Amino acid sequence: MNFASLPVFARKNLRRIEAIAIIVAIIGAAITLAIGGSVRSDTIRIVDVSNSMSSPYGELSSSSVVGYDDNYSGWVPSQNTQVNKNSLLVSGVFQNASTWTAVSFFKTVNVNITAFPILTVSANLTTGPRYGVRFFSQYPNGTEYNVWWEGSPLDHRSGIGYESLRVNMQREAFLATNHTVQTINKMALYIEDPPYSPQSFQFTLSKLSFENDSLEQVSNKQYRAIYFDLKNVPQENASWSLNKVDYGLTVQATQGTTFSIYFFDGPVLYASTTAARQLYNSLTPSSQITFYPNVQPQIFPELLPLSNTSIVFVATSGTLQGVTVQYANFEFLPTRLTPDLTQQPLGLYYVYFIFFLFLLPVGIAILVFREFLSRKLVPRASIVAVLIVGVLCRIALAATTAHVFDINVVLTSTRGWFQYRTPVGSFGPTLPFTFFLYWIFYSPYALLQLGGFQDVQFLGHAAGLVEAVFVKLFPMVMDVTTFALFLRFRKDGASFVWATFYLLNPFSIFVSSVWGQYEAATMTLIIWGVYWMSRKKNAIAALAFVVSGMLELFGFLPYLLLLLKTTRMRQYKPLAIAALAILPAVLYYPEGYSIFRLILGFAGFNVINSGLSQPGRFSLFGTFPQLSFVSQFKPLLLTTALVFGWAIFDTYRRRMDTERIVFYGVVTSVLFLVFTNLIALWFWVLPIALLYAIMKQKNDLGAFMLVFGTTIAFLEVSYAFGSNYLIFGQFGAIVPGIEGLINGRKILSIMATSFSVMLLFFLKYGSGQAKETLLRTAGVAVLMYLLLYFWLGVFFV
User: Rounded distance, CA 385 to CA 303, Å?
Assistant: First the structure.
């Protein structure tokens, strides 16, 4: 026969595929464990500097000696100022002007910043204007020179009401002059107003002093900062660049303390957003922190270290009592130069990117929609053809594109294991088990390296051309697995169409093969668990849900609902077996400890500082300041609790079944889209909603998901990352008319939120007509984008 029915293909061949997949996974795990540390390709360098650290010393929190304390008198000119013993008050009105306008005040002083290096300033300025603090010194011949520079953190500070600053002036003076400055002879204060912004203002200076603190060996006292001096620290050079530093720490501090990590390399100060304002909680004193170095000018608020090369832990609130460093691994990757391309090849690469991400897969998906939606039988050749196109698009993009930051995270993990046999490159918010799965799918490439294979570098990417495919092979294989699983739920052509709408959806292609994120694996395992649950195989389903939760906590939601349902039905033996499935997540200590920290963080305890449970800069409530008040109510935690309570009520009423579990998964994933700070989690909506469409035969929902995924992929490429970054690793817009909009993130957040509301509508209501839904929602997407483009992108800029 030329045609094979879908159930025959699904029930026979896919069962074999499932068995083969399990066998391949076992073999891959064995190979990974066997050859770890055997690859001698010099593609990463990891140096643990913990053995070269000095004994820690600290800056006492209660040892300040004031060398200069401003009395608020002597500032000139003195008009518009009021002086009392507690403050200097400046008030006035800025007139309408076409340029920046400012008022300035100067004061002659004599402050030895070598003896008293810590500047503390407390000020309060009306919202709207900006202010700054500047300093001056003199050469021996009496010539005055600036001890400030444009772009200094003390310059052009926006008025936000009250704020307090603490700055090491020795460092600020060196950055301004490139030499040591001993004495400050003059200070200046200024308040400035933007063009065409007439308004009254009030500025209050309530403290301006220069202080010194004392250093001592750490002995369980209260410290503002704790220092570790280093010897024999590896350095960057033309061939190697510092990618990150991984710390294993145990911290003692007062409850609720936040701290930041800095690294001094001579005059250069490295800071990191991922190691800033870390939250201490006595429940989790030990942690692994990944430090991605940033050399942007940073205010350093404490005394300089005694050595030129030091790691410093600074309490931004509260006080530190001690820090123990188990390891500090400096990880270097080869330096890659981005090629200098002319407009013609730049345009060709962009067309290549758009073709494999949008044009080819969406075009084929629409053809499949028109041809097979109403069919009862599906040719095997058609299934294979869709599979080939989906794999082709992913390989074409995986080899030539990359999210630089996230792919480097995976690269340091995989290269670290296969070159050094160490997991130290695999720490971060990603759970440890996830990195192991990346290693398994990377292992064939490691075997190629053992055989002498030499890869080719492309477009300055950190990964080689072939290596880039294997780095992303794990999520791409999970996409194919999801496609195969979808074909097992129903026998009709509509199910094949919705499976195609997943495999050829630009959103799934983008997340797995361009970005390289592992969200597809989380959802694949959930879908696998739902399949077995629908066939009364609760033990296998529970294991699938737990493994999914070991990748991302979302997998524990259906697992908990399964346990509740089994308990309510009084099926105690299946309940006991299902409960045992949690053992893999708790027996491996690093995995269990990381899950514990994440759960506490989502529950509102101050153990992580990632903002996972709060609206972020890509969400509607995080993008628009007018809606930021919503964050104080912890909307993700609150709404998720309400959904879980609703699910418990359904369980009590004996209405909980497999379809209801999927329904709650869709609702929860939408909540994560609207309220979370991680844009990668938006992907959860796509496969779980398509699964619900297949199970409930909601053709309108299935049709909508192609529009949903295509729209979200376009918005993320254009306004979350930019095609230039994804193709060449550079910031800036290839198509400025689209990607260069100032309010691009607002367009993204409005459309993503609007489409998530539409998705919730289709869950319950809708016409049920797939063709009409596809056309209408596509029209809504285009019209909404054009409206927002001209409204926010062109008119309101």
Answer: 66
Of 330, 259, 325, residue with least CA distance to 609: 259
pLDDT score for 623: 85
Distance CA 660, CA 647 (A): 8
pLDDT, position 611:
54
Count CB atoms within 10 A of the CB of residue 53.
16
User: What pLDDT is recorded for position 460?
Assistant: 80
Q: Which of 229, 233, 214 is nearest to 311 (CA)?
A: 229
Distance between CA atoms of residues 462 and 678, nearest Å: 24
Report DSSP state, residue 250: E
Separation between Cα atoms, residue 468 and residue 414, nearest integer Å: 12
Return the structure tokens found at 341: 């391309």
Around 376, how many Cα atoms within 13 Å sit in the side-chain half-sphere? 0
Taking CA atoms, 361 is separated from 508, 517, 617, 652, 656, in Å, by: 11, 19, 30, 44, 37
Give the count of alpha carbons within 13 A of 24, CB side only.
14
pLDDT at 19: 74
10 Å CB burial of residue 423 (0-12, 13-18, 19+) is middle
Sequence letter at residue 485: L
Give every CB contact of residue 125 below 8 A, 6+ residues apart in sequence. Answer: 131, 159, 160, 161, 191, 201, 202, 203, 204
The Cα diameter of the chain in Å comes to 100
What are the tokens at 6? 């879908």
Q: What is this structure's pTM?
A: 0.86
pLDDT tens digits for range 693-733: 999 999 999 999 999 999 999 999 999 999 999 999 888 88
Tell me the CA distances in angstroms from 687 to 48, 79, 392, 598, one per residue in order: 42, 67, 20, 24
Ranges assigned E (strand) in 254-375: 258-265, 268-270, 278-279, 286-291, 309-317, 320-334
How far is Cα 332 from Cα 43, in angstroms, rounded to an integer?
9
d(CA 520, CA 526): 10
Token pair of 93 as six digits: 């009105």
Secondary structure of residue 511 in the 3-state scheme: helix
Tens digit of pLDDT for each residue in 250-291? 999 998 899 999 999 988 899 998 888 888 888 778 888 889
Cis geometry, peptide bond prior to residue 77 (ω within 30 degrees of 0): yes
Q: How far apart are CA 414 and CA 435, in angstroms?
A: 8
Q: How far is CA 112 from CA 59, 69, 173, 210, in A?
A: 20, 13, 12, 9
Low-confidence ranges of the chain (pLDDT < 70): 1-18, 78-79, 297, 425, 427-428, 601-613, 796-797
| The pLDDT of residue 239 | 85
Contacts of 105 (CB under 8 A, 6+ apart): 75, 76, 77, 81, 90, 188, 189, 190
DSSP element (H, E) containing 602: helix 589-602
Q: How many CB atoms lie within 10 A of CB 264?
A: 21
- E-strand ranges in 495-614 read none
